[in-house]
Amino acid sequence: MADDALDAPFRKPVLIGLVAVAASSLALAVAMAIFQPNVAVESVGPSSFSHSALGHSAFTELLRARSIPVMVSRYASAERAGTRGLLLVAEPAVGGDEARERRLRSMVGSSRHVLLVLPKWRGVPDQGHPGWISGVQRLPLNAADTTLSAAGVAATVVAPATLGPCDVPSRLALVQPQLLKIHGDTVRPLISCGQGVLLAEVARDGRQLLVLADPDVIENHGLGVADHAALALDAVERVRPAGQTVVVDETLHGHERVPSLWRELFTFPLALAVLQGALALAALIWSGLGRFGAPLPAPPPFASGKTVLIDNTAALMRSAGHSAYALGRYFEAAVADVERGLHAPVKGTPALAAWLRGHARGRRPGLDLADVQRAVENAQRVHPPVAAVMLSAARRIHRWRQELLRGPEEHPGR
Q1: CB atoms inside a 10 Å sphere around CB 301
Q2: Could you read off the pLDDT of 89-102 as tens digits, one per residue?
Q3: Cα–Cα distance for residue pair 409/53, rounded to 1 Å
Q4: Mean pLDDT, range 52-68, rounded to an integer
Q5: Per residue in 271-283, pLDDT tens?
Q6: Of the candidates 216, 194, 238, which has an alpha carbon nearest to the alpha carbon of residue 118?
């Protein structure tokens, strides 16, 4: 039992349970990793995570529907865009934050293809409907001017009462329009509307920067209005190299997420694998608690000693069907022992039986040698041999021999 406990630290039901839990958790982890829903960041403002009226989620889905690769970036957006991809910076929240202004300046300066959409609205979260907005507030014009300045664009923002006629055939329906007023000759108008410019291009040092003045064109509430979707797609295709990815920056919306191995390990779905590993480690430690110190030496493959030899011999004789013969030999050996022990003047069972009847007067009737002999003969006649009958006869022989040579059990040694 001790060896079994060391070799198998868990009982069979516990082991089956552990294997079932491990297999189930592994299957669940794989299934959830494959079929997990997209976990979105909570946002009601102008970002690709937001499904509110000010969000850009519909625009990113439109790009994907047009087979345009899209990467929503929460870290090192300019490096991910590289020299071939398009960096989309839509309504960055940089006003009053010098660190974000410096980051925007660095991103625009290090990227070869950039589409910059200026900020315009601030949403008021709806407390009764998470993810919605209950209203909007118009940002001060200097918020967009700060963005233009940080991006190095020689222009300011104006807010005319009406959009006016535009020099494109597209139908536009902008509420409280926001347009550019260009200063200098480094900015080239692409779409002019009445008192300002809706879409402009800044080309310098082999780099291309497009500026969309009014974000209503790409926001969820305005993307499906008039020809806004077609205008937004046209703006993307003007600056995106053929076949390249659109990297949507979310760091300037406050959604930056610096890569961390430890954080990712405890984030779904990797957290399931970590949990499974922890359970496996706990099971390993648990299995080692069955003993302390070095393991006991393994038993020899073949045991030794008289007891083992006798047991093996008895097993062989029993399997060969020689139990009756062994019982007879045991009876003869017992009779010979009694003859020698009592110094009987006669030899042989019949003569010894007669001599013992006189010698053993006063002893119990059960000690009569003839009775013992009959018990042996009756056991030998049973075929096939019955172990209980053989054992009963052998015990009777043993008791007869012991009491004649050593005295009855109640008076040992007499």
Answers
A1: 5
A2: 988 988 778 888 88
A3: 105
A4: 91
A5: 777 777 787 787 7
A6: 216
Residue tagged 């648990």 (tokens): 286
> Which of 253, 254, 247, 256 is closest to 60 using CA atoms?
247
Question: Residue 257, CB half-sphere, CA atoms under 13 Å: how many?
Answer: 12
User: Which are the contacts of 406, defined by CB distance < 8 A and separation ≥ 6?
Assistant: 412, 413, 414
- Check: CB of residue 272 under 8 Å from CB of residue 25: yes
Could you give the CA distance from residue 370 to residue 355 in angstroms, rounded to a whole number?
A: 12
Which of 181-195, 238-252, 300-314, 357-371 is least confident?
357-371
* Secondary structure of residue 334 in the 3-state scheme: helix
Supply the pTM of this predicted model.
0.58
* Beta carbons of 48 and 255 less than 8 angstroms apart: no
Interior angle at CA 146, CA 93 and CA 46, nearest 5: 25
Beta bridge partners of 203: 208
Which residue is associated with the tokens 């055939």?
169
Q: What does the block give as tokens for 206? A: 């082999």
% of residues, the chain, pLDDT over 90: 14
| Separation between Cα atoms, residue 356 and residue 290, nearest integer Å | 61
Q: How far apart are CA 203 and CA 226, in angstroms?
A: 29
Q: How many whole angstroms separate alpha carbon 85 and alpha carbon 243?
A: 9
Other beta carbons within 10 angstroms of residue 279's beta carbon come to: 14
Side chain identity, residue 265: L
Q: Long-range contacts of range 274-279, CB-CB < 8 Å, 24 or more positions apart?
A: 275/25, 276/22, 276/25, 276/26, 276/29, 279/21, 279/22, 279/25
| 4 alpha-carbon distance from chain centroid | 32
* Structure-token pair, residue 369: 């040698």
pLDDT at residue number 81: 84
Sequence-distant (≥ 6) Cβ neighbours of residue 259 within 8 angstroms: 75
> Rounded to an integer, what distance in angstroms lies between the CA atom of residue 370 and that of residue 335?
11
**SS3 of residue 253 by DSSP:** helix
Residue 290 has pLDDT above 80, yes or no: no
365 pLDDT above the threshold of 60: no
Lowest mean pLDDT: which of 64-68, 112-116, 320-324?
A: 320-324
The confidence score (pLDDT) of residue 285 equals 75
